[in-house]
Design a protein that fits this description.
This protein is of the alpha+beta class. The chain is built from 6 helices and 16 strands.
Length: about 325
């Protein structure tokens, strides 16, 4: 029963982590005005990888910036956007690990996605019993605790931290599908791509960036293959502190003639905690024979948002 209790906490943590942009000094980070003796912004080695040495540290010039010229920038962004997975359905078995402080656990489950409609993550206890699920649609977030017959279903706009941060289904979909995104937009058009900036990070990578109020967005893209290797969302608040989400992609394999990452590493940091998630995908396919909406029996009890937050904070 202890394992099941930990799962409940893990499910709440997963949902809040995926849905909120978080902060620390790691990742590509937000641009800041350099001091007199500061000329570069460091890219953390865990996100700036090289084939020779994963711990090699690279830098992104900020003063002076090594900007990519307009034509090259637009062509590169178009290729990155075109290389995204365009399948309508994507399904996979998942090995899921979560780490909060000194607590760690590993679960198995299923990932099921239908483009522009739903993202569902089912988590299994003991390998064969569904302990719970997370479901994101265009209209609501659903968290189901199968063990305790509880659930939370709420529109995005009713969660302050989502509404204030501009996080919606489109952004979550882009993170799960390994794509560029723009807040409040679906599939990016050529016109929307013009709003992104690009900067050479190294001989191998390009940093793509976008600013929006208190939010900064960064992507690390492979120069040769035009694929997104990492996404970073930073929410900068002088009163609450910085909240940051890093989503690292690795182990790309072909699905429907497009490459898709089979390993997702997510790091969520706040001023006082760090949460890490790993998702390893297996048997990835395009199964469309499943119901895209969860229907719960009447015996399930609706959980208040405060209870989810309390469980998260107790970790």
């Amino acid at each position: 029963m202890k394992a099941l209790h930990v799962w409940t906490l893990a499910a709440a943590t997963v949902a809040l982590t995926v849905m909120t942009a978080c902060g620390s000094s790691r990742g590509l980070g937000r641009r800041s005005a350099p001091s007199d003796d500061q000329s570069v912004m460091t890219v953390a080695p865990s996100y700036e990888k090289s084939a020779q040495n994963n711990d090699q540290q690279a830098t992104v010039a900020t003063a002076p910036a090594e900007q990519v010229d307009t034509l090259q920038r637009e062509q590169f962004l178009q290729k990155v956007n075109d290389n995204a997975q365009h399948a309508r359905f994507l399904t996979s078995k998942v090995k899921f690990s979560v780490s909060v402080g000194n607590r760690e656990m590993t679960l198995t489950g299923n990932l099921k996605m239908k483009r522009d409609d739903v993202i569902r993550l089912q988590l299994m206890a003991f390998g064969f019993v569904e302990a719970g699920r997370l479901e994101f649609t265009q209209d609501y977030v659903l968290i189901v605790d199968r063990i305790n017959k509880q659930y939370l279903q709420v529109p995005y706009k009713h969660l302050d931290f989502l509404r204030n941060s501009g996080i919606d289904f489109n952004m979550l979909q882009a993170l799960f599908w390994n794509e560029l995104f723009q807040p409040g937009k679906g599939r990016l058009t050529d016109r929307q791509l013009k709003k992104f900036e690009t900067q050479s990070s190294s001989d191998e990578n390009i940093v793509i960036s976008l600013e929006s109020d208190k939010l900064s967005y960064r992507w690390l893209a492979d120069k040769a293959n035009q694929r997104v290797k990492m996404a970073n969302v930073l929410y900068n608040d002088r009163y609450r502190g910085n909240y940051q989400l890093n989503w690292d992609y690795d182990d790309f394999k072909t699905i429907n003639r497009k490459y898709f990452p089979h390993q997702h590493k997510v790091t969520f940091t706040t001023p006082d905690r760090e949460v890490k998630f790993d998702m390893i995908l297996n048997y990835v396919g395009s199964d469309d024979d499943w119901e895209t909406r969860t229907v719960l029996p009447g015996k399930y009890r609706q959980m208040p948002v405060d209870e989810i937050l309390r469980r998260f904070m107790s970790l």
